[in-house]
Every structure is written in C-alpha cells, then in structure tokens.
Amino acid sequence: MAIIGNIIKGIIYASDIISVEYNAAAEQRAVLKNLLRTAEHTKFGKHYSFTEILNSNNPEKTFSAKVPFSDYNQITSNWWQYVQKGEENITWPNSPDYFALSSGTTGKTSKRIPVTDHMVKAIRNAGIQQVLALKNFDLPADFFEKEIMMLGSSTDLEEHNNALEGEISGISASNIPFWFQNYYKPGKEIAQIADWDKRVQRIAEKASEWDIGALSGIPSWMELMLQKVIEYNNLKNIHEVWPNLQVYTSGGVAFGPYKKSFNALLGKPITVIDTYLASEGFIAFQQRPETDAMKLVTDNGIYFEFVPFSPDYIKPDGSLVQNAPALTISEVELNQDYVLILSSVAGAWRYIIGDTIEFTDIERAEIKITGRTKFFLNTVGSQLSVNKLNDAVQHLEKHFDIEIQEYTLCANRINDDFYHCWYLGTNAKLSTTKLANELDDFLMNANKNYKVARSKALEGIKVSTVLPSVFHEWSGSNKKKGGQVKMERVMGQERFKEWEDFVLANS
C-alpha cells in the first residue's frame, strides 16, 4: 500500500476544501499594487512616479499610460545594463541573486534577465500550485511516491558581478526544496554536468536504478534523452525501464508538433500536462485534464497586460509601437490573439516577452500560446502565426502517417518571386512535391489571408526534408543543447541562408 502517496494525495485533495472563489481581476490588481509599492523607491519607480500611480483612482490605467512598453534590448539599454553591472535599486530593490541566460530562439548572444530572490520564491510557489492541481487528474496514490526526471540545463551556475548565471531551468533546479531532493532526478551530481551529451549519457547509464513516475522538460530535448536511454539499454520503449511513468510535464513550446514522435517512444499512454515557464517567470500551467489550455498564475508576482495582435501594432523586429492599446485581464475577449506583456518581481516593467496567446476560458484565465511576435509570417500578406504552422505540420503527420519532429521556414525571394520555403525534420522518405502540395492546400483551406496571398504575390511552397538530428545540431552549434533552447520556426532571409549552408554542410 502506498502509505506516503496516500498522505500526499490527501493533502493535495484537502487543499480544495480551503480554496476560495477565484477572481483573476482582483488578484491582478493586488499584484500590480504590490509591485508598485515594493519598487516605488527604486530609480525606475521614482522616474515613472510609482507613488503617484498608486494614489491614482485607477492604478492599472495610470500605469499603462505612464510606463512605456519595453523589449529586452530597450529595457537593457535604459535600465538593466546597470543591474547587470551589479548596481542596486535600479528596477527592483537591492540587486538580483541570479541572471537567467536566454538566447531564446534567435541569435547566439545570450540575454541576461534578472532573477531576484522574490522571483525564485514565486516560481517555487507556482510549482506548488501546479502540484496541487494534480488532484484534477485522478492519479493513483502510488504516483506520488515515484521519482521525477527534470531535464533542464546544467545547475553548474557561473558567478558574475556577485550573481550566479545560468538558464532558468538550471536556476530552478538548483533551488529545489530539501524535501523534494529525494524525488528529484537525475540528481545534483549529474545535473551539474555542463556538456549535454555527457549528461544524457550518464542518465542513460543510471536509468535502470530509478523509478521514474514523471518527466519534465522541453519536448525536443526530452525526446533525445528518451531515445538515448532506449538505445543504451537496448529497449523497445521507455516503459520497459520506467514502467511506472505516468505523467509528462511539457513546457517551452507547444507540445502538439511533437506528440506523434513522442508517443512513439512510449509503451503505454501517459498524461501530458502543459506548463509555461519562461526566463521571465512561471506564467501558466494546465490545471484540468479536459483541456490542454493553461491557467495564468494571476496571484504570484507577475502582472499581465494584453495587446491585440495586429500588424498595425507590431514592428518588424517584434517590438510594439508605444500607442498600442493594452488590456487588463478584465477586458480581454475569447479567441483573440494577444501580445503578452508582463511586469514582475524580477524588475521587468511592461516587458514584451515575445509570445502571443489567446484566451480559451476567461473566467478561469486559461490561455494557449499561439506563437511568437517575431515568427508571425506576414510577407505578402499571408498572416500565418505559429499555431497555424503547427496545425499544418500535424496535418501532414496525420495525412501521410509520418513523424515530423522539427520544422522551420522562410518567406524567400527566388528569381523575384516569393515562396514559402519549408524544411521538415523527418526520417520519412516522401516526395517533397506531394508534401508541398498538401501543405499549400491545407493552408489555403484553413487561412483566408494565405489564400489571398497565393492568388497574388506568393508563388507557392517549396519543401525540403532533412534528418531531425540536423535541427538538433543546428541548435547546438548556435547556442547549446538542452535546457531552454528552442528551434526558430520562422527565419528571415539572411538567417535562412545560414541555415541552408549549415544543412548543406551537415547532410
């Protein structure tokens, strides 16, 4: 009998008894006031008159009127460069204990995003909220006694200006509470290995000693780890070594495009739970099995605003025009794409995280990530967001019964004509002409703007297929393997030329 598991499960279920009625707007209003109050005597708070904002009749509207939007480059140029040099009380009291290094999905240069002690606690609290939400998934008691494989970046953080630097997954793993350490795998020693391939090799070697009940990490790198464990231990599927694996907590990117190839590594179905942990904070998690949408964490150190996703408001570099309207959570509508803006206990203020979302349930504050502002493919008016591209790839998988583990594309000019040039990461051997025609037909039927573009300046689609490993090596050569590294879905022409040269040299 799973005695400890029943105790833990009982505590989780008991949490529902003491919960109160949910009011996202009230929680967000309280969060904003707390942020303003805490930072009103920082240089940023004084510059933008946080005291005056707090004393206004409508702090939300006054805040949005007084404080400008900022992307990473803008806030770093004006403020965070001083935080990064070790100066105190710039955008948040004192100085941060950590910096999250993030190159995101573009470029080789890492961003250095402040992670304060307040943010570490907020991430931990959001993780506890997610654990408490497991009561909705009807998991057996013995699940709560199994070990959890958290596959992130290395916890071997580097010191710089009296702060520690690393990816957010490594920072989070280095701050796990003591009571969780017996459940946490691969454990401190292996997690500190900086080299991704060596770390995964050690995981494969130790896999048979662990009783893993849950996995957590970005899908692309999780797949590679599972493949390595299966290969090293000469298995047919991962359940042969981890028979009690029941849950996978996905994050970083939409799980949909990886679903088919991921499931092929399993011996039986498992529960997939989506999360939204970014370098800027723990933003949302899936709280119900009836949907794959995620609940915004509205009471835990992050204040959200939402800008309607329109070409009129988006600059070519993905930043916003300053007069773009910003809505509070009480003003949003269903099925409308929004650019996500956040202010946080890490000293981010009206920060453009770069993601677009839509609300699927306003009362529950549930969202789906729909894409990236920089990956909105609008050349010649096609207006394709990442979620529409993901839908198209999943259609190909179903139509041709194949697995496509990664993809990227570019609106490329060829002999004065525009084509959408796709690269699909798959082991399947199929006619690229058939793939291109099916993609084209699907997108024309699914998107009226794309159909109009095809009748005008967009000549068509060209498809190339490469092994999935080429995508992984590209990520490794541009940044590093594992952790928060994600493949860019849409490239500009200059970046795409680099990609094609890389493919030629590595295929």
UniProtKB/TrEMBL annotation:
- InterPro entries per UniProt: GH3, GH3_C, GH3_M
Superkingdom of source: Bacteria
Write down the species: Cellulophaga lytica (strain ATCC 23178 / DSM 7489 / JCM 8516 / NBRC 14961 / NCIMB 1423 / VKM B-1433 / Cy l20)
Which stretches make up the GH3 C-terminal domain? 389-493
User: Where do the GH3 middle domain residues begin and end?
Assistant: 297-362
| GO MF | acid-amino acid ligase activity
Its cellular-component GO annotations read:
cytoplasm
Q: Which Pfam families match?
A: GH3, GH3_C, GH3_M
The name of this protein is GH3 auxin-responsive promoter
